[in-house]
């Protein structure tokens, strides 16, 4: 191959005689920095080191793939590497959102908006392009501890024991849900239900359309700190260290998960696995189909 003029380059790589041999022996096994250095060796090396297959291999070695619909693996891998470096070095752009008068207890966001709930009894909606507060919602008589929204509804829960349902279109309250005897600690939404859990040890299931209470589940012996809904299955995490799975349509307890030694602070469920965080300083990953 005429374009390779030296016996060794500065990385100690031997030139090889076939393009196929170079492709199999060099790019796939080298790190990102080495591939970048190969750009300067020759035009042939540049073409090989810049190949989609080489950079696709690099991406799979270093990053988690969300989907496979990419046509320029070099650019895709480069952007991920730059982002990781910025996180590692703390090279991030920080924006402070000022407006709440006390501690912020909960939030949810998407590409355009950020919703925050505070001890100052308000919910604020922020524009993530301008980082300005565009709405402040008043209605609770105590701290806003949890919130959840979708395209149509925002639901907030408070230390005042109530939930308020808001219209996402008008930002106005639609209904106040009462019944809990203590602070509302977490909320779930789907197309049929609004589900809330409380320090009063119960889970309440509300009709999303009529806002009527469907059922009350006496779920745990202590506070129900977190809930997560997938389909008909609801996972609840308690302040006494126990996780339970429920059929939300019937209120039946399907499974119990025992292993934490102190209260649970949070839980996530994806239909197959449950991930729980506890005051016992551990995070546990559970097979949701196996009772422990």
TrEMBL record:
Pfam families noted in UniProt: WD40
SUPFAM superfamilies, sorted: F-box domain, WD40 repeat-like
Gene3D superfamilies for this protein: 1.20.1280.50, YVTN repeat-like/Quinoprotein amine dehydrogenase (2.130.10.10)
Regions that span the bilayer: none
PROSITE patterns: WD_REPEATS_1, WD_REPEATS_2, WD_REPEATS_REGION
Keyword annotations of the record: Repeat, WD repeat
WD repeats: from-to residues: 97-136, 137-176, 177-216, 217-256, 257-292
Signal peptide (UniProt feature, chain positions): none
Entry superkingdom: Eukaryota
InterPro entries assigned to the protein according to its UniProt record, in alphabetical order: F-box-like_dom_sf, FBXW2, WD40/YVTN_repeat-like_dom_sf, WD40_PAC1, WD40_repeat_CS, WD40_repeat_dom_sf, WD40_rpt
The name this protein goes by in its record: Uncharacterized protein
């Amino acid at each position: 191959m005429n374009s390779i003029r030296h016996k060794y380059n500065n990385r100690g790589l031997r030139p090889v005689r076939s393009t196929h041999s170079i492709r199999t022996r060099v790019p796939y096994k080298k790190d990102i920095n080495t591939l970048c250095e190969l750009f300067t060796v020759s035009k042939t090396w540049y073409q090989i080191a810049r190949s989609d297959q080489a950079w696709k291999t690099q991406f799979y070695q270093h990053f988690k793939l969300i989907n496979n619909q990419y046509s320029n693996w070099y650019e895709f891998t480069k952007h991920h590497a730059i982002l990781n470096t910025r996180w590692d070095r703390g090279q991030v752009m920080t924006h402070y959102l000022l407006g709440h008068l006390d501690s912020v207890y909960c939030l949810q966001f998407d590409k355009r908006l950020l919703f925050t709930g505070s001890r100052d009894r308000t919910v604020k909606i922020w524009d993530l392009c301008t980082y300005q507060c565009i709405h402040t919602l008043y209605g609770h008589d105590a701290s806003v501890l949890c919130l959840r929204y979708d395209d149509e509804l925002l639901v907030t829960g408070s230390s005042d024991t109530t939930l308020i349902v808001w219209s996402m279109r008008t930002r106005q309250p639609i209904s106040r849900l009462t019944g809990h005897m203590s602070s509302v600690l977490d909320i779930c939404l789907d197309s049929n239900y609004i589900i809330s859990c409380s320090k009063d040890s119960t889970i309440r299931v509300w009709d999303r359309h009529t806002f009527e209470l469907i059922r009350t589940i006496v779920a745990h012996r202590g506070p129900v700190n977190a809930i997560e809904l997938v389909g008909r299955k609801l996972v609840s995490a308690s302040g006494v260290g126990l996780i339970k799975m429920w059929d939300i349509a019937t209120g039946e307890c399907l499974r119990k998960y025992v292993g934490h030694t102190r209260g649970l602070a949070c839980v996530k469920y994806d239909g197959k696995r449950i991930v729980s965080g506890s005051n016992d300083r551990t995070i546990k990953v559970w097979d949701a189909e196996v009772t422990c």
